[in-house]
Amino acid sequence: MDLTGTFYGIGVGPGDPELLTVKAINALKKIDVLIAPKTEKKSDSVALSIAQPYLKPSVEIIFQTFPMIKDFAEETDVFEANKEEILHELRGGKNVGFATLGDPMFYSTYIYIFKLLKRCGVKIVTIPGVPAFLAIAAQIGRPLAYGNDILTIIPATAELDAIKNFLDKADATVLMKVYKNFPEVVDALKARGMIDEAVLVSRCGLDDEKIITDVAAHKDEPLNYLSTILTQRNSGKISGKNF
Ligand SMILES: C[S@@+](CC[C@H](N)C(=O)[O-])C[C@H]1O[C@@H](n2cnc3c(N)ncnc32)[C@H](O)[C@@H]1O
Fold first, then answer.
1. Residue of higher predicted confidence among 241 and 190
2. Which of 4, 81, 208, 240 is in Cβ range 3.0-4.6 Å of 232 for a Cys bridge?
3. 154 ligand 1 Cβ < 6 A
4. In CATH, which superfamily holds the domain spanning 133-231?
5. Closest atom of ligand 1 to CA, residue 104
6. Does domain 6-130 have CATH number 3.40.1010.10?
7. Per residue in 35-81, pLDDT tens?
């Protein structure tokens, strides 16, 4: 396929407008079109608001809705339509950016669109970003893993049994996407002696950031989608809450 534009997957970090790489900023400055991903439920795009200050005034912003799905087989039509819209811009010789919260290759919608465009022979440049869990560790002053610590990262949207199985073995742990089954996650952490070490951070780096250290006390409150828990089995280690 004769495509002239380049597609940039740009990690914009988790929220702090200064947590973008120089490479991400340079890409944002040169693109002609920015794809701003959003979910069905929301009308705004956090990734866009982080990217906005770096865009040239003439940039065209296209909002694309991406349903939250668990595997590539779901919602094919929506993804195909989004892919076609991007291909149309690339064929016109435009450089197209896709702003991704955190890092593009880490639990990101970008991965779906990346896969589809790669199959079409598109020239793709992926620019890594600071993932939320690393920004959170820095923000709350909590070393995440040290020496021989084994770090486990669990998307809490996984089956509860799978979450429990991994928690049984886990030491230093990151729980992402905890918004859906927060009370069950709290119970699972309690049962494994991992609740006292838990810290929950919502909307890290954004104006309404929240840091919760008594996680169990908030068990029945609704959580923002951008919420992550850091925890650890053994307290008193070099990493962890009481460092
Ligand atoms: C679809 S994943 C995106 C991960 C992202 N690509 C990254 O590198 O961090 C969404 C999850 O990332 C975490 N997350 C992303 N941004 C966050 C933020 N600013 N504060 C807290 N958690 C965040 C939350 O666990 C959220 O449910």
1. 190
2. 240
3. no
4. Tetrapyrrole methylase, C-terminal domain (3.30.950.10)
5. 6
6. yes
7. 998 876 666 789 999 999 999 999 999 999 887 666 666 668 888 99
